[in-house]
Write a structure and sequence with these properties.
By secondary structure, the protein is mainly alpha-helical. The chain contains 14 helices and 2 strands; from the N terminus they run αβααβααααααααααα. The protein has a two-stranded antiparallel ribbon with strand order 1-2. α7 packs across α8 and α12 runs parallel beside α14. The protein is globular and about 60 Å long.
Length: 337
């Protein structure tokens, strides 16, 4: 048994390096076909820079060790409450397996950079960036949130719907992030706006976690029905994601605000787009649509549309404003996203 495990341990890094090499070659070929004027080697300026994940040594920081223990406890309680959910467990295992690759990864090669995607067609970053993390605390934080939100959601809507939901939130959040970074550079030349587009390399699954939080908040309110406490939407319901955003950036001021807000926006789109599709189809045909874009209990939730969106704008806008104000006070200058 030990020899088999040793062979597997030796094989995983080799497979990882082979996959990275294949993706790099395919990305270069696609970039040359799509943009023949960009024939210079797109990897030449990316082979240097920090290697992730940064090694973590337990015992050096007791506060961090305690935080890791808290994340482990949160994951355990989520498991005992919702059981083993295959999609959630598989994605958690994939992220953990990639994290402990002994050779590590070059941040500039795998991180999500809007300019590299838009101008050089490096679409592989859309896949590599959400499953890699900077260090063990970063991984533990995201996996604890992923287990807590994903297990609860998958238990209610099923594994197939869960897989589609995660794919939708991931694709939407990254699209919103890239479009926002690119659009911001067209509107302003300020350093706080330009730097994320050219020099920002985002990694981690936190955007998906925030999107799942938004989705689970609506699910909880749908299960409760009209009889909910006044504070329930803010502590457990639809606005809980903004409270979590504020706490996250209070504890980790350097986290990607644009990426997290993009994740929440993606989660809200998974609520509103299916409902808009259903209502438009019913008004046009008088029947239910042939394709249901929402699953299970989420179809029973009736959003308040403009009132609900206004609530998100007020709560979310206030949260983001407080975060940016705190960053400005700490930096003594412009607050970057």
């Amino acid at each position: 048994m030990s020899s088999v495990l040793g062979d597997i341990a030796e094989l995983v890094p080799q497979l990882g390096r082979a996959a990275v090499t294949a993706v790099q070659g395919a990305s270069n070929e696609v970039a040359r076909l799509v943009r023949p004027d960009k024939l210079r080697p797109i990897w030449s300026d990316l082979r240097y820079g920090p290697i992730i994940p940064v090694p973590y040594r337990p015992g050096q920081d007791l506060a961090t060790d305690g935080f890791l223990a808290l994340c482990a406890y949160q994951g355990y309680t989520s498991y005992t409450s919702h059981g083993i959910q295959p999609v959630t467990l598989g994605l958690v295992g994939l992220q953990a397996l990639l994290h402990f690759n002994p050779s590590g990864y070059r941040l500039l090669e795998v991180g999500l950079n809007a300019r590299r995607v838009v101008q050089f067609g490096e679409a592989y970053r859309l896949v590599s960036s959400p499953v890699l993390h900077a260090n063990l605390p970063h991984l533990a934080t995201n996996l604890a949130g992923f287990i807590a939100e994903g297990s609860e959601l998958e238990r209610r809507i099923g594994s197939s719907a869960m897989l589609g939901t995660i794919a939708a939130i991931g694709a939407l959040s990254q699209s919103i992030y890239i479009a926002g970074c690119w659009g911001a550079t067209k509107l302003s030349s300020a350093a706080s706006v330009v730097v994320p587009y050219y020099h920002g390399y985002a990694i981690g699954s936190s955007a998906v976690v925030f999107g799942l939080q938004a989705l689970v908040g609506y699910l909880r309110e749908a299960e409760r029905g009209p009889y909910v406490d006044e504070e329930f939407p803010y502590t457990h319901g639809r606005y809980r994601c903004w409270l979590s955003l504020g706490v996250t950036h209070w504890l980790v001021p350097g986290a990607s605000l644009a990426g997290h807000v993009s994740g929440i926006a993606a989660g809200l789109l998974t609520i509103y787009v299916p409902q808009a599709w259903t209502q438009l189809w019913r008004r046009a045909t008088g029947r239910r649509p042939p394709m249901q874009l929402q699953a299970g209990v989420l179809q029973r939730h009736r959003t308040r549309w403009w009132k609900d969106l206004l609530g998100h704008l007020v709560v979310g806008g206030g949260t983001v404003a407080i975060i940016l104000l705190r960053r400005r006070q700490q930096s003594g200058g412009a607050a970057a996203w």
